[in-house]
Structures are given as structure tokens and as C-alpha cells.
Design goal:
Radius of gyration: 16 Å
CATH topology of one domain: Multidrug-efflux Transporter Regulator, Chain: A, Domain 2
CATH architecture of one domain: Orthogonal Bundle
Helix content: 55-70%
Shape: globular
CATH class of one domain: Mainly Alpha
């Protein structure tokens, strides 16, 4: 399995940067957004896609499963649906709290960057 490309410590990545990191053309990233509903980069005021680290990691996972493991898009959708169902059944309050804490941490970083 190839090493993961370094993501750095940026809060947001533009589609061109994600394209470079993942070695995928921008049109593929846009297509995957329409196919995989969980892949939803934020949009800037200028309507530019802004991917967070988790989005980039999801793109890398999709790429790996499609190109290296041989999944089809339909097969990968079924896989993610089953996986999400299982995770939601197993999700405990502390897991939810940890997720919320991570989201709040990201929001605080964004707010802090506007103060400068």
C-alpha cells in the first residue's frame, strides 16, 4: 500500500490542491461529489470548493477502493451505506461527543484565523 501524501496543517484546500494531492483531475472530484453524498466540501463566498482534511482523506479512501481494490461506484456506495448503518448502530454518546469536540475545535481555529 503506497504511503499517504502529506496534507500539512491547512484548514482548507482548494480543488486544485486536492487534485494535486490525490493525483485526480478536478472533474473527477466534482463527479464524486455528486455520487457520494457524504463528500460535501464547503463553498467559499465566491462559490469555490473548500475541502477540509477529512474531505481529502475521504477522497483518498474512495480512490484507493475504486482504483486499487476494484470496487465499482455502485459497489462502493453499497459498502458505505452498510458501513454507515453499522456505525450508527454502534455509536455511543462518547463517540458522538468526541466528534462534536473535533468539529468545535475546527470552528475555533477558523474563528481565530479571522481575528488576525
Amino acid at each position: 500500500m503506497p504511503a499517504k501524501p502529506p496534507l500539512g496543517s491547512k484548514l482548507f484546500y482548494k480543488i486544485g490542491e486536492v487534485s494535486e494531492i490525490t493525483k485526480l483531475p478536478a472533474y473527477v472530484l466534482r463527479f464524486w461529489e455528486s455520487e457520494f453524498k457524504f463528500l460535501k466540501p464547503r463553498k467559499s463566498r465566491g462559490n469555490q470548493r473548500l475541502y477540509v482534511r477529512r474531505d481529502v482523506e475521504q477522497v483518498l479512501e474512495i480512490r484507493r477502493m475504486l482504483y486499487e481494490e476494484g470496487y465499482t461506484i455502485a459497489g462502493l456506495k453499497r459498502f458505505w451505506t452498510r458501513r454507515n448503518r453499522q456505525v450508527s448502530k454502534e455509536m455511543r454518546p462518547h463517540m458522538l461527543a468526541e466528534r462534536v469536540r473535533g468539529e468545535l475545535h475546527t470552528i475555533l481555529k477558523i474563528m481565530d484565523s479571522y481575528d488576525r
